[in-house]
Amino acid sequence: MAGTGVFADVLEGDVYKYYADGEWKKSSSGKSVAIINPMTRKTQYKVQACTQEEVNKVMESAKTAQKSWAKTPLWKRAELLHKAAAILKEHKAPIAECLVKEIAKPAKDAVTEVVRSGDLVSYTAEEGVRILGEGKFLVSDSFPGNQRTKYCLTSKIPLGVILAIPPFNYPVNLAVSKIAPALIAGNSLVLKPPTQGAVSALHMVHCFHLAGFPKGLISCVTGKGSEIGDFLTMHPGVNCISFTGGDTGIAISKKAGMIPLQMELGGKDACIVLEDADLDLVAANIIKGGFSYSGQRCTAVKVVLVMESVADLLVEKVKAKVGKLTVGAPEDDCDITPVVSESSANFIEGLVKDAKEKGATFCQEYKRDGNLIWPLLLDNVRPDMRIAWEEPFGPVLPVIRINSVEEGIHHCNASNFGLQGCVFTKDVNKAILISDAMETGTVQINSAPARGPDHFPFQGLKDSGIGSQGVTNSINMMTKIKTTVINLPTPSYTMG
Ligand SMILES: NC(=O)C1=CN([C@@H]2O[C@H](COP(=O)(O)OP(=O)(O)OC[C@H]3O[C@@H](n4cnc5c(N)ncnc54)[C@H](OP(=O)(O)O)[C@@H]3O)[C@@H](O)[C@H]2O)C=CC1
Ligand SMILES: O=C(O)[C@H](O)COP(=O)(O)O
After folding, report:
1. Which of 202, 267, 389, 431 suits a disulfide with 445, CB 3.0-4.6 Å?
2. Which residues have a Cβ under 8 Å from the Cβ of 35 and sit 6 or more positions away?
3. pTM above the 0.90 mark?
4. Which of 248, 264, 389, when mutated, tests ligand 1's pocket best, judged by the most ligand atoms within 8 Å of its CB?
5. How many Å apart are CA 402 and CA 307, to the nearest integer?
6. 82-111: average pLDDT
7. C-alpha 421 to ligand 2 mean position (Å)
8. What is the mean pLDDT of residues 380-406?
9. Over residues 147-156, mean pLDDT
10. Is 233 near ligand 1, meaning CB less than 6 Å away?
11. Ligand nearest to C-alpha 168
12. Which ligand is nearest to the CA of 165?
């Protein structure tokens, strides 16, 4: 159970503690932040509201700890990460319980998130050993006008202190996808978890604590992003920010100093369906892509662009499947569970009302109870409707009928987002041309958008982000290049 057994140190009274200097601490603010259970809409947990002074101390410790961590052999760093991964997987049940209560993630998906996170940590340890163990050797006579008098040795070195800020929808997985690459590369890490999801993240951090990482190397400060966010992201002690979330990321990128930024932001992933597509496959992927975790995935299918000639048939198939989705409590492992907050539900309702006023066809009746919104397919959506462009981050999916592939590509590219997209056709040549024309970081052919497997590169164009994630890319991003040049008094050529 959360906050008990090996996790007992994390909780005191009814408030979870924050993690600094290898210890669980109460904030001197004496204030806490409530985490609301999306299902009951009552306070489920409380976390510390950390102060600016506490952030300053954490940054100091992170800087000191990083210096000796960078001198820890790579294989030893990997060993500790493997240990943390095993502990995380061993304690999947209490962590999954927190995910269910804090963010209403369906029970089975919650367990999957923790297991996937353990696997990500292990994979990162292995990948880090491989790619950080290698460097480059260059000789000067490959550049015009030079003799072989210079040997250049290149290796990857840590950046220093990494600030990690994940969003509510994967508070464990999107935290470890930043923590593990940072640590294997010799950095220290300060985590600011999302408020909804903070207790799951604190339990995850405790698994790293149990693995025995040095004091101060990992810290976790809690509090509302709106209150401590700016102080953290503009802190002079931070050498890199890895952020996943919404428009907040755009604001951070304008305020942050001259440091590397990894930003994974929103998306409006389009699903383009051609006349020759296997419509059963498309319908299954639209359900999985559009409605899993109630549409609260950056990679959710957020607009279907289907050729008019097959639209009736596709809408019928999807509608039949939507009717079979179960709606209710995450504890019962329902397909559709309450969205994360009342304000999120209100926002989704605003999009639905706008579509209604402008004449979209409702394939189901719109139904809401608190934060729970029943799955809704909107047909005949037109570009003047907000739902055609904005991401609901909820179980509402618009269908726009198109008369040409170009029209579909045009709609996709007119979006300010460019995260992922997908195209369904049996003609692989056409699929490649469409993929090349779509201005998105990834295009999936004959499957719904998805970030996983977690070692694949994951990136957004335009307002969807800066840089690329995925295990290898994140390790590389959290390092810089250092070169040492050996200058010889006379040219030297290897004779073999
Ligand atoms: N591309 C991707 O990989 C993903 C993108 N997203 C996008 O994220 C959005 C939903 O997630 P959500 O969690 O609501 O996103 P937010 O951008 O609201 O929050 C993300 C994180 O930022 C923190 N935060 C809030 N304000 C600040 C600030 N001023 N400075 C620093 N940090 C701050 C939040 O903390 P707190 O909770 O305390 O406010 C949270 O930890 C959607 O737009 C979605 O598309 C989501 C997942 C993945
Ligand atoms: O944050 C998100 O929504 C994810 O990055 C999506 O991950 P998934 O596609 O593997 O669910």
Report:
1. 431
2. 43, 44, 45, 46, 47, 102, 195, 196, 198, 199
3. yes
4. 248
5. 5
6. 98
7. 13
8. 98
9. 98
10. yes
11. 1
12. 1
